[in-house]
Specification:
The chain is built from seven helices and seven strands, in the order H-H-E-H-H-E-E-H-E-E-H-H-E-E. With 248 residues, it is an alpha+beta fold. Strand 4 and strand 5 form a beta hairpin. Helix 1 packs antiparallel against helix 2, helix 2 packs across helix 7 and helix 3 crosses helix 5. The longest helix is centred in the N-terminal third of the chain and has 36 residues.
Length: 248
């Protein structure tokens, strides 16, 4: 008979798996970074091979962070919301996805930004949601076609909009792509770009834990592609409010 695993035990196992994966990954990554010096001196295909392996390490590190984030949310960890400057979080997420972008030959562009907008959010979960959305756009964008990120304010809400020129999500999958059941079902279908990985599921879970929602929009210039928006409530300051997270 298959063992029945309690939710708390499952969360603990996710954390343990993430921990056990991180230890050897850190050793591999450190050694590859050390090898980069010799690789450049050796020339030939050696430098490219080392860069490819470092790119794979970056991908594994992303998966480990997702396991930790899912364990945090599924475990009911509190996510207190406060004033967060959105633009710095977006810039940091873009910076950490540059290795992934370089591996796929995709430029990253930061478009229109409302640099002063503050959202009521949980900063760490917002960061993880954005990281997943940007990587998803990179992975399915055609080579040399940019992924564009915008920070917009509309009344009492602000949105981070991520646009790419990849294959469109069909109507059937517009909701299911963000669900655990949908990601599982997509493995056995021709659902295209959303047929593998838990990136969009984790993005939705973390966005909701951060205090926001994800929706699918239309490309601003009318061209083919996808536009995913993470929307958050704008922070409304009160006399007792403190400084926003990320403020200097």
């Amino acid at each position: 008979m298959a063992e029945q695993i309690e939710p708390d035990t499952l969360v603990a196992l996710l954390r343990l798996i993430a921990h056990d994966l991180r230890n050897p990954l850190c050793a591999v990554q450190a050694n590859l970074e050390f090898m980069q010096v010799d690789a450049r001196a050796a020339g030939g295909t050696f430098p490219e091979a080392v860069e490819d392996m470092l790119g794979s390490c970056d991908g594994l590190d992303h998966i480990i962070h997702n396991l930790e984030a899912l364990a945090s949310v599924l475990g009911g960890e509190e996510t207190p919301k406060g004033p967060v400057l959105v633009a710095p979080v977006v810039s940091e997420a873009l910076e950490r996805t540059r290795t992934c972008a370089a591996t796929h030959g995709v430029p990253l562009e930061l478009g229109g930004v409302d640099s002063g907008v503050r959202a009521t959010a949980h900063r760490e979960k917002l960061d993880r949601a954005l990281h997943n959305l940007i990587r998803n756009a990179i992975q399915y964008s055609p080579v040399r076609q940019p992924v564009r990120v915008h920070v917009l304010t509309r009344g009492k809400h602000c949105s981070v909009r991520i646009e790419d020129a990849g294959p469109r999500l069909t109507e059937e999958w517009k909701d299911r792509a963000f669900l655990a059941q949908g990601q599982s079902a997509a493995k056995n279908t021709s659902a295209g770009r959303y047929g593998r990985g838990l990136g969009l599921f984790c993005a939705r879970v973390c966005a909701e834990a951060a205090g926001g929602k994800i929706r699918i929009g239309e490309i601003s210039d009318g061209t083919s592609g996808n536009a995913l928006e993470l929307t958050l409530p704008v922070y409304e300051e009160t006399p007792s409010s403190g400084p926003p997270e990320g403020a200097s």
